[in-house]
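Per reviewer request, we include the raw input and output of the structure prediction for the construct analysed in the revised manuscript.
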Amino acid sequence: MTDIRLLVMSRKYIRSQVTRQFNERHKFSQYNSSQKLNLVEKLKNFKEELKGLDSKVISLKWSESEDENEMEIEFSSCQEYKDKISEMLLLLEGNVNGSTSENLNETPLSRLKSPVAPLPKFKSSDDESLELFLQQFEETTRKFSYTDYDRLLLLKQQVSGKALLLIDSLEADKQGYSHAKELLKTAFASVPTQKFNVIKQLQELKLGYDSEPFQYISNIRKLKEAVKTLKMDIDDVLQYFFLRGMNETFRNQLIQITNNSKPTTSEIVDNFFEANERYQNANKLGKLSKSKLPSAERHQDKLGLSKSSNLAAEVNFKSSNPFNSCTLYSDKVNGDHPIHKCPNFATAKEKIARLSILNGCTKCARIEHLDSSCHFRFSRKCKHCQGWHFSFLCLSDNHESSEVRDLVRNPKKAVPNPKQNEKSKSKDVQNSTQNGVVCPGSSFQSKGGINSFLPTFSCTLGPSKIRGLKDSGSQANFISECALEGQCFKVVKDNFDLVVNGFNGAKCYRTKIVQISVKIGETAHNIEAICVPGIDINLNLPALGKVVRSFRNYGYKLLDEFLDEAREDISNIQFVLGANSAHCLMEKMVSFGHSGQCVYYETRFGIMLIGNMRN
C-alpha cells in the first residue's frame, strides 16, 4: 500500500505541473524560440514520466481491486493528461518549425471567441433545473471543437451564485468540464427537489391582465421540457401535494421514519399510521408539559410566549427585570428598548394612549388582551396610587382629569352624555368643536349593501404606493397607522383627543397629527393628517371587473391603479383626503350615456369612478 501511495503522490505532482502549463498556454505566443524549446523538452519528459507512473499505478490497482468501473475512471484520467501534453506540444513545435504567429494564436482560448454561440444561463435559484441547463449547454457546445478546459471556461461564464462558487473550488488537477459537471450534479441535481420545483412553478403559473403573453408561453415551453427531461409522472404530482398538505410536525415524523427528506407516495401510505401514532404521542406530551406549568406561565404559553419572548413583560415583573422589548409600535414590530424606557412614548399618558389604539391592556402593557380580561399577577401594587397596574402606567402623578383618564383608558366612556347639565354640555361641545372633526360613519365602516363607487385613487407615500379616498364629507385628512410604518414623517401635534362624529354616534381616539408628503400623479403635497388605527372600508361590487375593463378598453386612465379586472371589491384604503386639502386633487364631474345618470370624475391625472354601478 505504501508503494502505490508514493507513486500516486509523485504522479500528482507531475500532473499539477502539466495543468499549470496548460492553463498558461495562451502565453506561448510571447515566448522566444529558446523558451519554447526548453518547454517542449520539459513536456516530453513529463510525458515519459507519466507514462511509466501510469503503468505502475494501473498495475497495482488492478492487483488490489478488479473493479472495472474504477479502472475505467483511471484510464480516462490518464488519457486526459496525455491529451493536454499533446496539445501543448503541437502548439509549440508547430511554431518552432516556422508556423506563423496567426497559427500560433489558434489556441483553445481563441476558439471561444468564434463563433458566438447562444448559451443558457444558470443562476443557482430554486426554480431552475440543472439537468435542463446542462442538456442545453452540451447540445450547443457539442457543435464546436471545444476542449474539456474550454467548456469549463464557457461554463463559468454562464453560471452564477452558489454554482460558480463550487466550480471555483475545483482542485488544480481537475480543471475540466467533466469534473465541474459532476460536482454541480452532486450539489444541485437532486431529482425529487427538481421535480418539486417544477410542480411549484406549474402551480404558480398565471397569465394576468398585465402579464406578457410571450413570457407566459416561454415559461410553458421551459416547464414542458423540464417535465420531459425529469421523466415526471402522476406519482410525482401526488407526492408533492400529499406532503404539502401535511403540517410540519406530521411531515417530520414521516421523514424520520423513512429517512427520506421527501418520502415517496408508497412510503407515505406504508408508514402513515406509524407516523400518526408518533404524532399523537407528541401532541399528548406537549399538552402534558403545558399542564405542569405554573398558572402564570400557562397563561403566558397560551399567548405563544416564552420566558425569552420579546413580545411582552416577564410574568413576575420586578424593577430589576424590565420588559425585554417595547410593544408600543405595533403588534408585529417591537422596539429594541424596555417599554418603561420608551423614548417615543415617554409619559404614562402617552403610553396608555398608544396601548388604547393597539387595543392593548393599560394595566400590564400587553397587547394580547384588554383591561377587562387581564389576569396578570403583579408582585406589588402601584407605588403612586396603590392600584393593580404597573407604576409607569399610572396617571395619578400626571394631574390628569377624570375625563382625560376615561377617554384614554376607555374611549367609549368619553362620548358626551346627553343628560349632563348645561355647563358640562357647553364644555363638551367646545372640546368637540375644537378637537373633533366631522366624518360620516360610512367612511370608516362600510361592508357592501349599496352598489356604488367611491372616488378612490392611488398615491405615493415615501417608497410605497397606497390607495386613497377623496371624501368631501370629511373635514380633515386621515392616515392609517400601518401606512406610516417605516415612513419618515413629522409629528405636528401629539396627544390629540379626536372625536369622530358620524351618523350613528361618535368615536374617541387619543392620537396625533402628522405632516406627510403625498404624491398624487406627478405632484407632491405636504399636508397634515390625523392618525387612526385603520380605515375599515370594504365595498362589494360584483360587476367591478366588467366596469374597469370597459373604461380601459375605451382608453381611459384610471387614477386608482389598484382597480383590478379580476376583483369584485374595493378595500385596503389607507388614506382619506378631506375637504381642507381638496386642492390637491381637483376634479370635474362628467356625465355620459343616454340616461344622463352615469357620471365619473375627471382629473388631470386620470379619472375616478363615482356613482351607482347599476347605471
